[in-house]
Write a structure and sequence with these properties.
The protein has 18 helices and 22 strands. It is an alpha/beta fold and 497 residues long. Helix 14 (370-383) packs across helix 15 (400-412). Helices cover 34% and strands 26% of the residues. The strands form five sheets. A six-stranded mixed beta sheet has the order 6-9-10-3-11-12, with helices on both faces. A six-stranded mixed beta sheet has the order 18-19-20-15-21-22, with helices on both faces. A hairpin with a 2-residue loop joins strand 1 and strand 2.
Length: 497
């Protein structure tokens, strides 16, 4: 095809118990968007981490601009024009935006003197170029996940990179922010950059890609121009079989009201006078744009936010959650939006991660029964089809989709009757998504109730029995997925309460 900016030649990489990459080759042309697809665990992120100097390859080589490169660490990669925006954000939460962007290369003579004025101006210049409206002096921990994602993209651009890897960049973005990201990507493409774009969202891939490569089980299946592909062709290449339906048939039957939320208002965050009902065996969706208060609603119910006013009534009785532990004892479970930051315990193994929320069950007077933990972990691994070499594998070495399944297993072991799911399929491939959807429907069919936040309107319409829409911390409407449209939901999401 010519004009190769980056060549990846016969790369292999093994970890204990698994061959993550098996003789993988890939060419990325300058001035193009090259999408990399595959199921969770296919090897996409591992291939890019080898390029970026996080992992070392067992065999193979990388050629950048005609020169063979082997980066020992990410700093070397960035210094040589290769940047990567990771799916799981790695930022210093207690420092501000501009310090995170210029970390390790502060202007001035650090540590003796740092020119904060220049750093501030340089950050403003990049934000202006990318049309990003974020205060450079804002502390990272005060930003939403989508804003933090934009900061990471700005950081990658600040290195004046030749190759930029974007790993699930839209997983936390609203549709408006996705459009902004696409404008940024296309401007980088027009400047001659090679963009490697990893995503599971088919409509995005077919819309913006020039070339598409598909991996499966650590091997490269094929590379084709995006113009020759369809969603069905990509799915068949990814999973090795046809996947006739995106969503399973809904077999749950919502019953009587199990939960009432009346006038819920948070003390310190964006949640104001929200009321709704949840029925037994129902999947209730929550839609809205960035800052709508969707996550704050789930956190308020689960005791992660201080509630200033309002009532939570379960089975006809007012309850006080107050803390996650108290909420858990009252039958609630919550999957948080950010797996890495607030979901998994990366230094622990799969068994420990699956059983940690139910630890009292395994405790006796003098010890914790590892045998009982192992039995429950094995049940979760088999039931949820978690791909892992064994129970003792560190969970951080699993793919994002398998980490998510492990967290599902953790909460299922606590036997909840109300699940609060914040972006439960974020960064998960189409096959794993179907499995998560089926699990949700099965739980609802068995009588569990689910409140699900998602930025994907198609997902909410396909899986939910009812959808409430939020804007500015308020509930602005409620719709029936069988009769509503994406346009109606977006209108409610942009409405001022």
């Amino acid at each position: 095809m010519g004009n190769e900016l980056l060549q990846i030649i016969h790369v292999s990489k093994s970890f204990p118990g698994v061959k993550a990459l098996d003789n993988v080759s890939l060419n990325v042309r300058s001035g193009t968007i090259h999408s990399l697809m595959g199921e969770n665990g296919a090897g996409k992120s591992t291939l890019m981490k080898c390029l970026f100097g996080i992992y070392t390859t067992d065999t193979g080589e990388y050629i950048l601009d005609g020169k063979k490169v082997l980066f020992a660490n990410p700093k070397q990669a960035m210094d040589n024009g290769v940047s990567m925006v990771h799916q799981e954000l790695n930022q210093v939460h207690t420092r501000n935006v501009m310090e995170n962007i210029w970390l390790g290369r502060f202007p001035g003579l650090p540590p003796v003197y740092v020119n904060h004025k220049k750093m501030y101006q340089d950050t403003l210049d990049i934000f202006k170029k990318l049309d990003i409206q974020i205060n450079p002096k804002a502390i990272i921990s005060t930003l939403s996940v989508s804003q933090r994602q934009m900061v990471e993209i700005a950081k990658a651009v600040s290195h004046d990179s030749k190759v930029i890897v974007l790993d699930e960049p839209t997983s936390s973005l609203t549709e408006i922010e996705v459009e902004q990201l696409f404008r940024i990507i296309n401007s980088l493409k027009n400047r001659g950059c090679g963009i490697i774009y990893i995503s599971h969202r088919m409509n995005e891939i077919l819309r913006i890609s020039d070339d598409v490569s598909v991996m499966r089980d650590g091997k490269m299946v094929d590379t084709q121009p995006a113009s020759r592909l369809t969603t069905d062709k990509i799915i068949t290449m990814m999973v090795g079989r046809e996947l006739s339906k995106v969503f399973p048939p809904k077999t749950n039957m919502p019953g009587e009201v199990i939960l009432k939320v009346e006038g819920l208002t948070a003390q310190y965050c964006n949640l104001k006078d929200v009321s709704f009902e949840l029925r037994k065996g129902e999947i209730l969706g929550v839609a809205g744009l960035m800052g709508a208060g969707r996550t704050e609603l789930l956190e308020g119910i689960f005791g992660l936010n201080t509630i200033k006013a309002g009532k939570i009534i379960k089975n006809g009785k007012e309850i006080k959650t107050g803390t996650p532990n108290r909420a858990k004892k009252r039958g609630f479970a919550m999957l948080t939006e950010e797996r890495r930051a607030t979901g998994i315990f990366g230094v622990l193994n799969v068994c420990e991660n699956v059983t940690v929320a139910n630890i009292e069950k395994y405790r006796s007077l003098f010890y914790i029964s590892s045998r009982k933990m192992s039995v429950d972990a094995e049940w979760a691994i088999k039931t949820l089809r978690i791909k892992t070499p064994n129970q003792r594998t560190l969970i951080r070495s699993l793919s994002g989709g398998n980490q998510q399944k492990a967290i599902f297993g953790r909460w299922m072991l606590t036997d909840p009757d109300i699940l609060l799911l914040d972006e439960p399929t974020r960064g998960i491939d189409v096959g794993a998504k179907y499995e998560i959807y089926q699990l949700m429907i099965d739980l609802a069919k068995d009588g569990d109730s689910i409140i699900m936040v998602s930025s994907e309107l198609e997902e909410l319409l396909g899986i939910c029995d009812r959808i409430i829409v939020m804007s500015g911390g308020f509930k602005t409407g409620e719709v029936d997925p069988r009769s509503t449209t994406q346009e109606e939901i977006m209108t409610l999401a942009a409405k001022c309460a």
